[in-house]
Amino acid sequence: QVQLVESGGGLVQPGGSLRLSCAVSGRTFTSYFMGWFRQAPGKERDFVGAITRNGDSTYYADSVKGRFTISRDNAKNTVYLQMLSLKPEDTAVYYCASGSRYSYSWPTETRDYDSWGQGTQVTVSS
After folding, report:
1. How far is CA 20 from CA 1, 42, 67, 103, 104, in A?
2. Confidence band of 59 (pLDDT split at 50, 70, 90)
3. Pick from 62, 51, 56, 60: which is nearest to 22 by CA?
4. Do 110 and 37 touch, CB atoms closer than 8 A?
5. How many other β-carbons are positioned within 10 Å of the β-carbon of residue 6?
6. Which of 67, 75, 95, 108 has the smallest number of CB atoms closer than 10 Å to its CB?
7. How far apart are CA 107 and CA 113, in angstroms?
8. Which pLDDT belongs to residue 27?
9. In DSSP terms, which residues pair with 115 in a beta bridge?
């Protein structure tokens, strides 16, 4: 059983930055690719970005490309989401997720992931 715990959310002004963390426990962390999703009130859970098992490659949604960066520290079993130049439309609950299936395409759908964290609220407002 894999457990994921997000932290680092909060209230930030437009143009500000935040770094989210997701601590993973359970099975071998390097067995999983990791992803971040977000869900605004009344909307579906949307893909933000993903990172490979060894952290050598990342992929982002167009809406965050150039502003958000995903990284992972396999020694600490933790994945990060660095968010810069935040906008009000980035306001959402942010979730990290882990997946284990091998595929030739980037895992951008919720069904690509097996386990989820509880989420952390990010609010961008002045």
Report:
1. 22, 23, 14, 26, 27
2. very high
3. 51
4. yes
5. 22
6. 75
7. 8
8. 75
9. 98
